[in-house]
Design goal:
It contains three helices and two strands. It has helices spanning about 40-50, 70-85, 95-105; strands spanning about 55-60, 85-90. The mean pLDDT is about 85.
Amino acid sequence: RPKDPVTGDVPAACACGLPKVLNGTAPSIPDGRSIPCEMNKFDSMIQFLSATDQHFEHVIAVDAEFRVFSRAWCVSEIAAAHSMGMAQHLKLWSAGGLARHEDEMRQLRIQDMSASREEDKK
């Protein structure tokens, strides 16, 4: 199991006794994504919520070090919501943090981000 990128801890699987369904668990759709996996459904979920609730908005909580923008899947979700025209709100730790990280934010590249799975960087 991969380590948490912030704490370095290896998270324990829940003790519910149910099977763990991961991104590659069969059955899958033609592109290889697992059908029963809940972790690869963000685009579908926000499309549904946005279409069924006119007040639905995307809140992006940004940590003090702006690490959220170093994770490929986080930035992908932000971009997906933006491309759907969803209202988005950044919640920053401080305005000073934005000033300190402004240059990094202007130069974001998916190829430079970290991801547990290489396919998340594409």
